Amino acid sequence: MFLKISKPKKNIYLDHAAATPLDLRVKKVMTPFLNENFGNPSSLHQKGREAKAGLEQSRKMIADIIGASPSEVIFTAGGSESVNLAIFGVAGNIKNNQAHFITSSIEHHCVLNSFQALAGEGRQVSYIKVDGQGIINLEELKSAVRPETILISVMLANNEVGSLQPIAEIGKWLKGENAKRAAKKNPAILLHTDACQAAGYLDINVNRLGVDLMSVNGSKIYGPKQTGFLYVRSGIKLKPLVYGGGQERSLRSGTENVAGVVGLSRALELAQKEMAKENKRLKALRDYFINKVVKKDILLNGAYSKQLKVDNRLPNNINLTVKGVEGETLMLYLDSYGISVSTSSACSTGSAEASHVLLAMGRNEKEAKSSIRLTLGKYTTKADLDYVLKVLNGLIPELRSVKALN
Ligand SMILES: *Cc1c(COP(=O)(O)O)cnc(C)c1O
């Protein structure tokens, strides 16, 4: 009975790591900038000044939240663009082909593919491994550093399995390391973090993290899509990605997306303000589900330990390997019951490849292809999860028996 495809009557959306709905309070502050305050911020007349005020107020709001000054916040069209500006911006300013870059093996494709492009141009790139929990090996990172290393890029929280990376520890270590390098006249190593999954759930103060560059987007924090910013610590020179009228300190030319920026700043403000309470609620839901679902043949992927005082997993992430069932098949059947989940990263839909993150964590090809990701959000309830558990309890044995027949 569970295998019949029926038209879903409801939708239980559990794919918040891929996209979040626009918070109505965000929409509210955006609307005036789509309508009456439509001006070009570069115009000197009244309409221009209104738009410019919205843009600069948002920049100030974001700077205050992340512990930066407004001139260090560069608006972009999303996470991928921020990451590209950070990586190609640093690389483009260094002509030395010996320049060396370090990243992790579990980054989002916008990071991995940027480094792959650099490697294709003959640049040196090292990929740091992770442990079974999906957390980077700090000792390996430290020993990968060379005299020519100029950039380390490691994400703050992983989008597939939710594991948190020790960015503050890397930042602290780099401070000492860079002091020693200065004495030897080696270039300072810059630290970039992709904080797109983290901005809604973690402290993203750039000084506490010790980062020089940080990428954040709006679409994962109940803000508008195609919005984001790159934090660029004062004094760092980047090569622009987009040339033109010189907006965003000439790093990102083009008429600013004022309504988008205003929405992004409000979304970040709300997320950070409501984080403590919301994280607690999500964690309780996450752990309730994990405790009910994980069995001998349903494994949890990623960092998780009841003993740990400090949680090293995003509060809304559940990633499971369901043995004997293809993740994609399970995802499609869940969809027919009105439940939206994903197999691995939504950004690589269409590709039936096993997740590079799960493989890096030591799962085999079969286990990696038998995985689904459920990411909870601010409208997720316990009743939603009970419904998902009920459907899963019916579907999984049936899908396994169908597979066994073939
Ligand atoms: C979504 C995401 C990105 C890409 O952001 P876009 O706004 O879609 O370009 C980058 N990194 C991580 C970790 C993400 O989750």
Give an overview of the whole structure.
With 406 residues, this protein is α/β, with parallel strands linked by helices. Helices cover 41% and strands 13% of the residues. It is built from twelve helices and twelve strands. It has helices spanning 24-34, 46-66, 79-92, 109-120, 138-144, 167-183, 206-209, 258-293, 327-336, 356-360, 365-369, 382-405; strands spanning 12-13, 73-76, 100-104, 124-128, 149-153, 190-194, 213-217, 228-232, 298-300, 317-322, 339-340, 371-375. It has a seven-stranded mixed β-sheet with strand order 2-8-7-6-5-3-4, sandwiched between helices. Strands 9-10-12 form a three-stranded antiparallel β-sheet. α4 (109-120) links the parallel β3 and β4. The protein is globular and about 65 Å long. The model has no long low-confidence stretch (mean pLDDT 94). The structure holds pyridoxal-5'-phosphate. Pyridoxal-5'-phosphate is lined by residues 78-80, 108, 110, 155, 159, 194, 196-197, 217, 219-220, 228.
Short key terms for the protein model shown above:
single chain; 406 residues; alpha/beta; 7-stranded mixed β-sheet; 3-stranded antiparallel β-sheet; 12 strands; binds pyridoxal-5'-phosphate
Tell me the layout of helices and strands.
Blueprint (H helix, E strand, L loop, with lengths): L11 E2 L10 H11 L11 H21 L6 E4 L2 H14 L7 E5 L4 H12 L3 E5 L9 H7 L4 E5 L13 H17 L6 E5 L11 H4 L3 E5 L10 E5 L25 H36 L4 E3 L16 E6 L4 H10 L2 E2 L15 H5 L4 H5 L1 E5 L6 H24 L1
Parallel strand pairs: 1-11, 3-4, 3-5, 5-6, 6-7
Antiparallel strand pairs: 2-8, 7-8, 9-10, 10-12
Helix pairs in contact: 1-8, 2-8, 3-4, 8-12
